[in-house]
Amino acid sequence: MKSRKKTMFVTGLLMILTGLFCSACGGQNGGSEKLEGSLQDMMASLYANADLVQDFKDNLDSYETIELTDDLEVSILGTDQITYTEGVVSMPMMSSMAYQCVLLRVDEADVESAKQALKDNANLDKWVCVSAETMLIESRGDVIFFIMSDKDTAAAMSSAFQKL
Q: What is the pTM of this model?
């Protein structure tokens, strides 16, 4: 009887320790994980690794990834009230499809407020004659991923962002 109690105690202790180690590791690899490299390179990686439909891939040569400037902030982000250290936007130069994908690098303390500002100010109907089907706003560390497009493209790009 004593050895059974001892075995149960050791098993319980191991389960608790395993749970603590797993949650500690999960906390470190969660939202605070920093992504290294330039946002231009990250955007190129998103397109290279996203499981995009062939029609979208066929038109990628008409897309341009440019630095987000003060002049573009309101039209791209819906606001000029987000403070960021680096920003890029990818969009088609001419298309009948509503699409934009943005990467922003912000101070980690400002990530959640910047995401909320994007959510509050984004306009899915900003294009002439077309509207984006969905909007996704996610983050990893100090990088915010913001996309407005059709649902399949947004999901594919989001998946590629999570794998960076």
A: 0.80
